[in-house]
């Protein structure tokens, strides 16, 4: 039997290893066939139980894009040639179930529970990541927009999201107009484990000390006049940062989800 050889320098791997968030885009539209291909790629991502419980809203209205930029507090959101908001979507499945005799407002309806909420969220993220990777492979640049969740209620209103839907992440795509450095990644020893989670944290802290130095040498193009804070300092700051009303439960409950079951 011929031993299989692996090309570890293939284009797919290089695309993923060179992934960088792009926040400045050339003022060039994305061709329709490229948009269609990116959306098809997203549809081919894995889907839990084949429920296809995610959707994506392509933003083409400049006024809506401007509102999203205001919510995200990032002007470049409105300047992206291609802009999506990915949502977990049990509304479509509720509609289908209702047509089959299931009452979505009854206790028998379980697609609004915490398990399906998390699985639908996973599906949306997988679809987004597939689209993002495909875009990078075509020479485009992307940035994932978690900032759109700064004000979930406002985002729900702007997008007219119906019951049993919830926004997950945004994705801005375009031809890069900047060339940021690759951001350092954690040492594999503190992120990949074998069989069980390690009990001893001393090795983690030792490795993080070296990683802190690497991160502190990195300059983010959003603030080029100073190096980025050390990774451990960023963690400490976020560990006590105010969430400013970003709890998932209240808006998710208003959208019809029951995260207590």
UniProtKB/TrEMBL annotation:
<feature type="region of interest" description="Disordered">
    <location>
        <begin position="241"/>
        <end position="261"/>
    </location>
</feature>
<dbReference type="GO" id="GO:0016491">
    <property type="term" value="F:oxidoreductase activity"/>
</dbReference>
<protein>
    <submittedName>
        <fullName>NADPH-dependent oxidoreductase</fullName>
    </submittedName>
</protein>
<feature type="compositionally biased region" description="Polar residues">
    <location>
        <begin position="241"/>
        <end position="252"/>
    </location>
</feature>
<keyword id="KW-0285">Flavoprotein</keyword>
<dbReference type="InterPro" id="IPR029479">
    <property type="entry name" value="Nitroreductase"/>
</dbReference>
<feature type="domain" description="Nitroreductase">
    <location>
        <begin position="17"/>
        <end position="175"/>
    </location>
</feature>
<dbReference type="Pfam" id="PF00881">
    <property type="entry name" value="Nitroreductase"/>
</dbReference>
<keyword id="KW-0521">NADP</keyword>
<dbReference type="InterPro" id="IPR000415">
    <property type="entry name" value="Nitroreductase-like"/>
</dbReference>
<keyword id="KW-0560">Oxidoreductase</keyword>
<dbReference type="InterPro" id="IPR016446">
    <property type="entry name" value="Flavin_OxRdtase_Frp"/>
</dbReference>
<keyword id="KW-0288">FMN</keyword>
<comment type="similarity">
    <text>Belongs to the flavin oxidoreductase frp family.</text>
</comment>
